[in-house]
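Standup notes
- DV: blocked on the single-chain target, sequence here:
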Amino acid sequence: MKLLITGGDGMLARAVASALASEVSIRLVDIEFTLPPPVGVSTSVGDIRQPEFAREVVQDRDAVLHLAPIAVPNGDELNKLEYATRGTYVLFNEAVEAGIRHFITGSSLDLFDSFPAQWAIDEDWRPQPRPVIEHLCPWLSELSAYEMLRFQAARGVCLRFGHLITTEAAEALSYDPLWLHINDAVQGVKCALKAVENTEWRGWHTYHITPAGNFAQLRLRNAGRIGYEPVHDFRAQYEASPKVIAEPRRWQDIVGAQEPIPSRNIHKVVVFGAGGPVAAVAYEELSSSFQLRLTDVIPIGDITSYNGRQSKEAPLPRLLPPPHEFGVVDVCDAEQVDAACKGMDSIVNCTVVRPDLEKAFRVNTIGAYNVVKSAVKHKIRRVVHTGPMLFNMDREGGDRFEYDTPGNVPPRPGRNLYAHSKYLGQEICKVFATYYGLEIPALYYCQFLNADSTTQSINFSVTWTDSARAIRRAIELPTLPSPFEPTLIQADMPHGMISNAHAKQLLGWQPRDDYEVRWQDNEYEG
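- DV (later): unblocked, structure below
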């Protein structure tokens, strides 16, 4: 086997390379190396976010061990988040194109650290990441890797590791219930490599690589199926540690909002991406009821003056009189987003970038992070998120030809850049909403048309004006049934593919334009 290992300067990557160097051809990859590589191991220095570099390092490899999400380089939190998200997308995309079919992704058992130790948690449990970079990087990378491989002829494993430690270090430190001996972690990787080499093994599998014994916060469950047998249990350190009896809590409180933000009356609304057509028609709808702060990366007056329509029928923004405000804000800039949210009661995020790799992740993923983080700082509970319909963006693997699909169907972005970067931004919103008890209605669209349009519509269209009414309802709703509520916004259609019933129930919204004239066959002569 010829193995590529990302996060190559990290503790686990080096340990795996040392253990396998005599049996496997290994290439370690990282932005920099602080120590010489193990004997017999090659290194490549570069950034996996760059397609040219990723394409180079996956050549002649049979398998990928992706440890970068748990060994992100130093830097600010936005750089770390981008490295874990865009880096995973680019690396896996290039690896799939190069014909690699064996993948192992490293993640973290920290994603379960809010659950009590007495809970019998196994790999079927959904993680509960906190809205911190240390959780978001491995969690979003997991999701990205899964989507990149979901419909490929590949074998994928996600290994969630505890806090790596050596025997000597454990003897000198206070007991940590998430400790994992480095040698057990290496054994877990070896077992996963054997599993993905099995020609009868298919699909995606997740395993918790835990210590031995019954002292850790998470104990061994399903990883034994691939032959994993941990040795180190840290019993001595556990018995020497002080025991703290936690006050009993209802499980509903443990999985619910931990630092809930209260609701407030909504008078002032900030809109990001206000120069685009979705926001332009929305703020016309909102302007009579709310005081608006309208922002875009380009001055909105400039968009209007040079007639910068996104499409032939797309509406143009116009300048509104005071008390409405206009500002230039780059959603990728955390400080600018923070300043725009100050003093506001609600947020509408209509920002989007489609075909450009770097900008798509910075706007659709990092931008979403900046928005919800600022919402928390300014105690803004209601955030309206917008994006594309994600259930069929990757045609080879989406639910494109299903029927009776609900409007809040789980996303299937696959390898589509636009959908994938928006999907990760959506998940960031969901993590923040869950932890802080935010109220985030996420409205998803496919195609927009004017009510009198002669353009051929597709089966998931909505008029610009109906989309604006949906955004109004998303702001005005007194409450939501759950912190994060995704729903498709589309006109009433008779095709029976995907339903807008959830949008009607959630928002109390009814589309007024049904496009009936455009799904009639005008050439029918019977």
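- Follow-up: The mean pLDDT is 92.
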